[in-house]
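batch_manifest entry 22 of 60
target: Methylglyoxal synthase
source organism: Devosia neptuniae
requested by: lab member K.T.
priority: normal
notes from requester: please return tokens only, no post-processing; we will run our own comparison against the previous entry in this batch. if the run fails, retry once and flag.
--- input ---
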Amino acid sequence: MARIGLVAHDDKKDELCAWAVQHKRKLSEHDLWATGTTGGRVMAATGLPVTLLKSGPLGGDQQLGAMICEGRLDVLIFFIDPLSAQPHDVDVKALTRLATLYDVLLANNKPTADAVLAAVQ
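--- output ---
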């Protein structure tokens, strides 16, 4: 069972939810964690249990980052909107930097999320 973090910028939340519905069976085999708003939307769309953290701008990104540093997260699926400015951009960059630094599987869009989920046991 992998520990999977789910995050999506506002304009990507619908896309992440649709992706989660498509992969509901496989996701049900894993332990899901998510920032508050994203996680609530994924739970509503899929019916899967998701441990909710704070909303991203209120510290949820940092909570996921701490989980990565502590070895408590195996995969990060973070649907990023590269066309919209984010008020908490520093936190976003820190989260992706930590995933890279600690060799956590990282997906930033649907095709990479498909590949990462297929690779997870």
